[in-house]
Structures are given as structure tokens and as C-alpha cells.
């Protein structure tokens, strides 16, 4: 695909064409259904290059192979469920099993297939060599560790509600971010976890229970029409809506848009994303911070949603602004196209951060003073592990975990 872009100079010649939409459309045209439907501008543009593409593709250009190559290199991330035990206890347990904690000075990320790492940024995120199978591991089976990509962990980490907060997760199933929020809050406070889809709601309830997230109140409702009375007092809101998933390394490259064209699907998703985000920012009077996140790398679902929402808020005299939730992070949105906005938006990517593609933008209410609205991430420092402990003492799994394992065995 890269060669195809270079040869045709498509992105330079068609500067308004979103690169990721171009990838999706070209994939569908050359390796998927082999046709594009609809009359939209992007579809017409890609069709006008059809012959050039056909004459200049080789088997090796297949994007599925590109994804496969990336997939092979993506570390297997896991999050320690700190509701059951500490990061230090988890690391000691793994070392006792024969895993080796990679050292800061190691030249390679994973010097051997026995090495693992503690993420330097997000407490409790562990990285194992690509391809490590953890689905059958007892720690995963009893939810002492959860299989969650680092990028997905970023959302709860940057929202970081303090203990005792009231939090609303508007698109909650299967509950990865909900349970992470509960762990960050040490189960102190209240998280309203809302999911519209009945099947996914069941999955959410089961997962919340298994992960021991007792501060979560699940609600099967449509968040777009959710009223403030159903979730009183919310201060922190996570909006993690359905999206194209274009940032997911493992996402199938074709066959995922059976009934409608990619364009129609994107259009519907963007409409929904704008509605739910605007509702989050206007319905809940005590909300102070709202985090918008997607696992998409399309600006249409990201910066475009954020900038159009800011315009609407301004029009309706709703006072919110964007804040930089992670100043130390390198991946940013497009500042040229979205001045004043792009630089405050966060992107995670496989190429730069060895994660799935992910996007975040943090809204803060204007009248919240910077000190009272500041992130309380430091309260979780006690859970953070020195990633290079020169210690060989190995601890037993804690009592609480043993208790949990017993409960699961009995059910
Ligand atoms: C990207 S997933 C959320 C992933 C989740 N935050 C996590 O980390 O596990 C989006 C979810 O939003 C749900 N959803 C879509 N529209 C909704 C709505 N109007 N109200 C509530 N939930 C909705 C979808 O069914 C889906 O489960």
C-alpha cells in the first residue's frame, strides 16, 4: 500500500483525501469486493485511479500482509487487575513462573520469548513478546490480569477520576475501560456504566462482576437520550463510542461492511459520535471533564467530531475547552487542518507507540479552576512498580486473590 501511495502520489495530488479512508477504499477495490458503491467524492477519486492501481500492485502490497506483519510485532499487553492484587505481587508471581523482567538497559524490547516488561507510563500495564498466548493462563482465567491493549488503557489513565468520584461511562461494553476506571478509583465512588445493546450489556455485567468492580452500576439504556436524573452527580465522563475501528491492527481488512458502503457507514458513525459527545457535554450539569476516545485513525471520526462539537457548543453558549491530557505524549492530531485543536488531540499508533491506533481528546468545563480540575494520577503511584527491582524474593499470591479464585471454582 505504501508503494502504491508513493508511485501514484495519490495523497499529494488529492490533498483533501483522508489517507485512512483511501486505504479502506483501495483495499475494498483491489482485494475485497473489487468494486466501490456510492457517488461520494472519495469513492470517485479512488475509482479514477483504478487502472493505475491495477498496473502497479504486486502480491506483496496486499494490506492484509501489511497488517499481518504489524500484528506479528505488536506486544501482547495485559493489565494487572489491581482490585485483586498489586502490580508488585503480579510481577513476583510471573517471575516465580519463570518470566524474566526486562531491564531498562536491555537493547531489545524482549531479549527472549521469556521476557516481559512493565509499561513506563501506565501503572499495571505489562507487555509480553508478540504472539504470547495468555488466554489459557490461570491469571487471565480468574481475572487477576486482563488482556487489554496499552492504547485502550490510556483512556481511563488520562481521565483518572479520584477515589469517591461519580463517573459515567456512556459506551461501556465489554467493560475494559469501566473496570480499569474502577481499579483507578480503588472501587471507591460510583461508575455508571451504560450500554444499549442487550447482548453486549450481558457481557458487560458478567465482566464487571468477574473483575470485582463493585463500584460499577450497570444500566441498559441509550446514552444519546440518557437523562441526568438517571446518573446523578456525574463529574467525569468517558465517551468511547462505536467507530470504524480503523486503528485496530487485527481488524479484518475486508468483508466488514456487508450491507452498506464504507462511506455510508462512516457517515452514520460520525453522526452518532457527534450526537453522543454533544449530549455528554450538555446534559450533565456537574460534569467537569469529558474524554472522547475512539480506536479509529480517521480524522473524520476524531478531530472533525471534536471541532464540530466545539463549534456547536460555542453557538449554544456552552462553555467547554480542550485540555492536553498527556503533555509528555508524542502522537498528536493534525494542527494544520485543525488549528488550536490538533495539537491538543492525542494519537497512539503502531508505528510510534507499538499499540493499536487510538485517539483521545479531553474537554474541560471553563469554570473549573486548573488546580481543582487537575488530574489526580499521583494517587495511584502506590500501585506503580519499580520496573527494575533487583530483588529475587518471590511472594505468594495474596489472600484476596485466593479468595476470588475459590469463588470462581465454586461457580
Ligand atoms: C467501542 S465500544 C466500547 C468499548 C468499551 N468502552 C471498552 O473499553 O470495553 C462501543 C460500545 O458502545 C455501545 N453503544 C453504541 N451506541 C450506544 C448508545 N446509543 N448508548 C449506549 N451504548 C451504545 C456499543 O454497543 C458498544 O458496545
From TrEMBL:
UniProt cross-references to SUPFAM superfamilies, sorted A to Z: S-adenosyl-L-methionine-dependent methyltransferases
PROSITE patterns in UniProt: SAM_MT_RSMB_NOP
One of the record's GO molecular function terms: RNA binding
Gene Ontology biological process terms, A to Z: rRNA base methylation
Residue segments, region Disordered: 371-411
Amino acid composition bias (Basic residues), ranges on this chain: 397-411
Protein residues bound to S-adenosyl-L-methionine: 195, 222, 240
Source species, domain of life: Eukaryota
Keyword Glycoprotein: no
Bias-annotated ranges (Basic and acidic residues): 387-396
Cellular component annotations (GO), alphabetically ordered: nucleolus
Keyword Nucleus: no
The SAM-dependent MTase RsmB/NOP-type domain, residue ranges: 66-366
Keywords: Methyltransferase, RNA-binding, S-adenosyl-L-methionine, Transferase
InterPro entries tied to this protein: MeTrfase_RsmB-F_NOP2_cat, MeTrfase_RsmB-F_NOP2_dom, NSUN5_7_fdxn-like, NSUN5_RCM1_N, RCMT, SAM-dependent_MTases_sf
Active-site residue list: 295 (nucleophile)
PANTHER family: 28S RRNA (CYTOSINE-C(5))-METHYLTRANSFERASE, NOP2 YEAST -RELATED NOL1/NOP2/FMU SUN DOMAIN-CONTAINING
Recorded family membership: Belongs to the class I-like SAM-binding methyltransferase superfamily. RsmB/NOP family.
Name of this protein: SAM-dependent MTase RsmB/NOP-type domain-containing protein
Organism of origin: Ladona fulva
